[in-house]
């Protein structure tokens, strides 16, 4: 008997706890005017119905959106209206489908339609663009994936970056599976200025045109756009991080490894490696040749090869000593990613001077 009495109480307590933990404000006819229309604060309001599948898919994203802006609750409102229960509010703001997102400026009763993607990045960007406020994500690194819509797609594609784009949909299970891998991939190439890892919410009103023009009919669809070209190359490889990293390295000429660091070839130049091997142990004899070869290369590390030739010619133990110094700096940590890349590149080049070429048999 006591158990029967306790269960409803526990259920009520659990429900209250969950509701209290939400940063999304529940809006009803009695509080809508004071919270949204006359507060002086801008507000993003979702009109939803409990039975709506798309609303259920949006719910966790919307909760997270409210959470990352909860620190600025005195400056912006993230709210929702059960328009199935409170039909008067849905009718007042001409809601015809679910979910419908509307932006209120806090001063008038005439909202503007939200037409962006229904992912956290797109929603956050909308609020940032409108208010200047930036999301604060606890325990998470800001995403390096760039969300593209019809306008930004035209601005980014065919320019000076190699772009790998995933066309996704909010309800797509395979897209959700891909999402963490895509985030890791974007982080891996975050310091590569000529590589962009992007996403398009193919069902967002402001991106449907692009998805249609690209012939996207299933999700996720992944396409590669080489720099300077608007012609897409369909990606047909594996969908783990290792596969994507290898693909981009091949297409873009980069040297990244999983985790974002440079691989063992980063910074090295094959043509100059050949000369270093040719004059192994007699670098003074090859100094003029390495200088001549370096002059014709548009690579910032070409001159480093020349420097190493000069240093080794004057000091036979230079490579070992310098490599030990650079490795020590890398082990200390707390370095900017660009600095890590530079030290790794120079270390990779130095190791080319340690490898004695195999002697060919006569």
Automatic annotation (TrEMBL):
The keyword Chloroplast does not apply. GO terms for cellular component: endoplasmic reticulum. Its EC number is 5.3.4.1. Residues 1-20 form the signal peptide. It catalyses: Catalyzes the rearrangement of -S-S- bonds in proteins. Keywords: Disulfide bond, Isomerase, Redox-active center, Repeat, Signal. Pfam families: ERp29, Thioredoxin. Residues 1-132, 133-253 form the Thioredoxin domain. NCBIfam families: pdi_dom. This is protein disulfide-isomerase. It comes from Lophium mytilinum.
